[in-house]
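Question (not urgent): is this output format expected?
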Amino acid sequence: MSLPLPPPPPHIELTGSPREIGFQHGKQLAVQIRRQIQVYSTMFQRTSNLDWPAVRNISVVYQNTIRSLTPDIYVEMEGIAEGANLSILDIIALNARSEIALGLFSDGCTSLGWKLEGNCHGDVILAQNWDWTPRVQENLAMMSIDQPGHPKIYMMAEAGIVGKIGFNSASVGVCLNAIRAHPTDSSKLPIHVALRLCLESTSTQNAIDRITSLGGVASSQHILIADQSGAVAMELSPLGDTYIPCNKHGYIAHTNHFIANKCGVIEPHWPGVGSHERLARIDELMNGLKCEVGVGEEHEKIGDTLRQRVFSDTFNSPASICCMENPIKPIETRSRTLFCIVMTFSPGAAPSAEVVWGNDLAGPISEVHSLTMPWA
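Got this back:
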């Protein structure tokens, strides 16, 4: 049975030093962080046969890595733990959950980066459906992070996690697709820390340079990153990275398998996730759409068009672009689309995003639960 859609996420505004930002985060989302620990404790037990104390023990190696490579982010995590009255290892475990699970969590997600031409003046669109267990939806928050020396960040994030899906005031944005593959390398950055570094960057190249200079990422993942120049698919792994530019039509789409990275990771087939089918389907839909959008359509309408004609698509359901829960899977590990985000980066204008809450995506904007970033 599907869980009912929870109320929309809270908006929290975090400012100050790393410790102050962390403390505000932990204090305001303490209930949600504790619920997240319960959700992931159950998932680790089912997928990896690890109880939460064992997960915390494993997280010690990631604690050392984060403290060494990104000391400001580590101090922020300490602040989250203090604000929520939890152990720092609880917060490290949440932020390294993708790595500790050794690729056994089956997040979905379909993402798209698109540089438009014509009357849209070269706008860049960055969008995705985020598919995950419905049990985390009540623990999501819309966060802004205002810290000295960095662009202001706006993101949709899980409580307790320092980096997720969103953009910054420099018009740099990120989407995430999980890649289920081995090995992992605990001496490198957890992917949610890498996402935060991207969101602190002033351009796509600045983000790539920062992650590269710190030695890369600990697990195989895909970050779709964009700035006002366009989008790049960052296929990342502890064994090597590959960067895919937009195709001749100006877009790049991605799901949950490597397209071009041949670094040698072990990437088994994901039964029931439909990654290859979703990628073929979004390309099919974009081939029908690319000739219509960008010539005569203003950018305010493009989010609606993408949501109604691409991200609401249920071909190959339940493993569709708009993901539905699969009733034959254990209830703890079922996924569905929890939100759809469409970010717009326009020359000479402030970046913005529209978030539709839940997976009822096909209706006009007046009939869906729409949120915006930045918010008033």
